[in-house]
Structures are given as C-alpha cells and as structure tokens.
Amino acid sequence: MLSFLLQLVLGVPLLYGLLWIVYSTGEQFYVWAGVFLTVVVLLFVILIPYVIMPLFNKFEPVEENAVKADIEALAKECAYPLSKVEVVDGSKRSSHSNAFQYGIGSIKKVVIFDTLLEQHLGLTDAATESRRQARKDKKLAAQKEESNKAQNIPEDSNKVNSSE
Fold it and tell me: Which region, left, alpha or beta, applies to residue 85 given φ > 0 means left and ψ of -120 to 50 means alpha?
C-alpha cells in the first residue's frame, strides 16, 4: 500500500509536469523535457536514500567489528569521505546478500545487508538477532491465532481471567 501511495504521490505530478512541458513548449519540447528530467533525477539521487529507502527498510549502525574497521580503513586509504557504515534488514525480503554506498558531498554511507554479514562473513550483530527473534515471534503468534481460529477458540480465552 505504501508503495502504491508513493507511486501516486510522485508519479502523477511528474507525468503532469512532463505532459505540460510537451504541450507548452512546441517543437523544442525535448530540450525542456530533458532539463526537467535531469532535475528530477538529481533530486531523486538526493532524496531516495534519505527519505524513501527508510520508509521500506530499517537502517542501523554496524557494531564495531573487523568488517567495519576494514571498510573504514579502505575508505581512508581511498580518501573516500565515509560518514557511516550501516546494516539494513534485507533478510526480511530475501536471503540474497548485498551492499551499496550512497551519498552526496561529504555525507557518504556504506550499507551492508544483514544477510551479507551473516552468510558470507559469519557475523551477526545484536540488531540482526533481535530482528530474527521478532520474525519468529510474529510467525508463532500468527500460527497460534490461525490454530485458534481453526478450533473456534476466541482470542480472549488464551488470557487468564484476573477475577479468578
């Protein structure tokens, strides 16, 4: 639902703007459309990592470990202005591992998927463990609720009556 709303909020004005440029600039529409789209892409490069990605993913700082130290050392060696190394909860959607960097100017970040830390490097941090436990708890609660519905047991019957 959030994805659909985001497409609606961003897509409709962009399409309207592009169509307005085509209709109002005549035969030179492609020049103005190119300028418009260039500005839009540059805005998205800035906004997507800071505004849109946090809507769909949870970013947390990487705990102090050898991987973080190696990334920071490499950034220093390459004169890359690294401001943060973060881990993202990619395991909630996929078991694939990945990492990426983003940022503009002096604010640059490296993001590592929790699956990369876990699968390829054998590391797990406290945040990964807590997310894994929360998923297990949520799954168990859903199974219990489904089982209760199948047996026609009301949800409140699992609670202890305090008046007894």
Answer: beta
97 and 46 housed in the same domain: no
For residue 88, give the nearest of 45, 117, 121 by alpha carbon.
117
Is residue 123 domain-resident? yes
Strand 107-113 and strand 82-88: the pairing is parallel
Residues 6+ apart with CB under 8 A from 134: none
Q: In total, how many domains does the chain have?
A: 2
Question: Averaged over 143-162, what is the pLDDT?
Answer: 68
Whether 125 and 63 share a structural domain: yes
Residue 156 CA to residue 153 CA, distance in Å, equals 8
Confidence of residue 120 (pLDDT cuts 50, 70, 90): low
- Strand ranges inside 14-81, DSSP E: 59-61
Which two three-digit tokens encode residue 114?
Answer: 């929790």
How many residues make up the chain in this entry? 164
Q: Alpha carbon of 27 to those of 7, 24, 33, 152: distances in Å?
A: 29, 9, 11, 69
Q: Using 50, 70 and 90 to split pLDDT, how confident is the model at 77?
A: very high
CA distance 100 to 117: 13
